[in-house]
Amino acid sequence: MPKRKRYPKLPNGYGSIKYLGKGRRNPYAVHPPVKEFQLNGSPVTPKAICYTDAWIKGFTILTAYKAGTYYPGMELELNLEDESSENIESLAQKILADYNTTRPVEKAKREQEKTFEDVYQEYFKWKFENEKGHSYSKNTVNATISAFKRCSELHSRIFSELKYEDLQKHLDNSTLSHAALELDINLIKQMYKYALICEYTEKNPSQFLKISKEDDDTPGEPFSSEDLKKLWAHKSDPTVEFLLIMCYSGYRITAYRTLEVHLSEGYFKGGIKTKCSKDRIVPIHSAILPLVEARVKRQGAMLNTTPYVFRTAMYKTLKKLSIKHHTPHDCRHTFSMLCEKYGVKENDRRRMMGHSFGADITNAKYGHRSLDDLKTEIEKIKVE
Are 190 and 127 in contact (CB under 8 A)? Predict the structure, then answer.
């Protein structure tokens, strides 16, 4: 049984020609370029432009479609009798050459002249205003707007002319926190995905971006001894309960949403951001063990809402208890302070907080500590 002919591969963003199988009068479905993607990144194949009886006809239709000269019924007027592999290859190359030389100049010029700000405005509307079946939190929208504002030196630059060096320079010269730079990179990457879909650019330098500075954490102020005493006195309050858990375990607030809680063995496992932070183990301090057990029994997780919602409740609770303003990240600073105050070994404090050992190759490569070792250290922390 003879094999079906192999046809030339179409360029990226050109569209597709799908063979639907035997027994059809017009077995080739001609689809325009993909413009939409599912939430998991899978492409959504658009409706076919038409159906043809020969691959080369479909290719001719796609070329006309991209050049803006296609009209319904055009496929019925094509008469291509010689469909040998050699003829198809040469004809396909000729059509591509013709298309590249006759492509509408004004359209290409408009796309090339779009600035970083132009692409952002289109992307923002596409993502947050036009996408159906998905809603985003106010926090997500505001974070996107803030990230764009921080890229001010790129706003007037022609998007298609931006190079990796231009984008990386923004990150390297910035005095922003590590967390803020992560948001900037995420925005830039999303914009390039959108620009590729719209064919505003043929390259994606954003995939190589990196944050050169070490994760510096967010500046903050730990809770004082007096503050902690007030919190322990109101530990039955669900908001205070979680604050205490954070103060005596040291994870970032976002990590608690997916944190593994191993009650029988007495430890947490999880973390976000860096290689050292992810999947690290922190023993559950005996003082917060009853709080952790109650929280797991009551809601099945350490944090079953968004950090934004918790912050709102936290600020109200602290005000009610006459405790000065703190952020959730101050709990992480509190854990670090408690470790230092009660003599937890510095290397173990780094391990439990997910900090890098930097140039300390010995501990980075050969430092091995058991769960029991870490439990011994964390239990040095006293509740006064």
Answer: yes
One-letter identity of residue 90: S
* Inter-axis angle of helices 164-172 and 178-197, nearest 10: 160
Separation between Cα atoms, residue 3 and residue 273, nearest integer Å: 51
Tens of pLDDT, residues 25-65: 999 999 998 877 665 566 788 899 999 988 888 988 888 88
Distance CA(211)–CA(274), nearest Å, equals 11
Every domain of the chain and the residues it spans: 16-103, 132-208, 225-378
| CATH domain 132-208 topology | DNA polymerase; domain 1 (1.10.150)
Considering only the C-alpha atoms of the chain, give the largest distance between any 2 of them, rounded to a whole number of Å: 91
Which CATH number describes the domain made up of 225-378? 1.10.443
Nearest Cα residue to 211 out of 274, 142, 126 = 274
The model's pTM is: 0.48
For 134-191, the pLDDT digits (tens) are 677 777 888 889 899 999 999 999 998 899 999 999 998 888 777 778 889 989 999 9
CA distance readout (Å), 310 to 113, 118, 124, 217, 241:
44, 35, 27, 20, 12
